[in-house]
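tool_log.txt
---
The assistant was asked to compare two proteins side by side. It first ran the structure predictor on the initial sequence, then on the second. Raw inputs and outputs are pasted verbatim so the downstream comparison step can read them without reformatting.
(1)
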Amino acid sequence: MHDVGARLISTLLLSGALLFVSFLVFSVLYPRKVLAASPASGAPTIRRSKDYGYLAPVARPLEWTLRQVERRITYRSGRSSWGWAIVLTTFLINLVLLPFRILAARNAKAMKALQPQIESINARYKRRGLNLDPEHSREISEVYKQHQTSPLAGCIPALAPFAILIAFYSVLTGVAELHGAHWLWIADLSKPEQLPVRILPLLMIATQLLVAKIAPSPAGVDARMARFMGMMPLVFGILLYRQPAALMLYWLTSNMLQLAQQWWLGKRYA
């Protein structure tokens, strides 16, 4: 239980006299199992601990899955472990994302096969000084249509992991039981690691660099854009260095699973 008390003094002017009214405002964060009391007990019940807004269609199933996994761990081992619950939930999330990554790998392979044909069309129109001509775009579109692929087809599967990341971040900041929950060397999963050098963000950066290295590059990306994309893991590491350990644990576990999936996809769709 985490209590934050704040005293608010409000001054009201009524009938020419000053009337001081003090309001004592408490903001209390309780675990759900405490709040969701039985209706028979007469205590009020709270069905939802957080309003996820537009993220609710994704965040609610993620929260339900995380809590179910944690309950199974508690039932099997006799003690709660939210750290392992995050790891196992991340494994399930990556199983759900695998079909999207297969689609992205198939599209990358198809785009790579079409690249010589696209470059030939670009070169022909460039020599004629018509590289911005509508006929140029129409001819390239016809090539994509003929082979039933598109550069945008690889972007849609790539958006799913980011949508889940944002939703799961909202879940991890809304689960009250993570406050004070320890895991291995981490004293509190709801806070950053209390170490001089935080291990999880550094491991996240290293694994993210490996993921970026082995992931197939989109067709037609120039060297400047490739260098920019290669720097993104460092940017993410700096931005997320002070984030809660629970989020870092999810991201690190997801990177490790994605490395295994990319290795398998590389062998299958090389």
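(2)
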Amino acid sequence: MIERDKLDRINELARKERTDEGLTSEEKNEQESLRKQYLKSFREGLKSQLEGIQFVNNDGEDVTPDKIRQAQQESGLRDKEGNIITSEDK
């Protein structure tokens, strides 16, 4: 997750950008860099959350998409057969 001071700076630059003063070229570069950091952090967090979800249909069958299932296996949340590893299994 991105640090609070960086998020505050992103917002500060966005507010300044909307004023008549605008941003200097240095501030525009800083804004772009901070936004890239924010998006990277956001995407990593979302990926982590999705990897922790097991999708089930109304019949209770695991219908987790293969791409997520594979990521779960790589991170140790599923065994080689594709079954969710619970705390009891460890």
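---
observation on (2): The radius of gyration is 20 Å. The chain has two domains: 1-51, 54-90.
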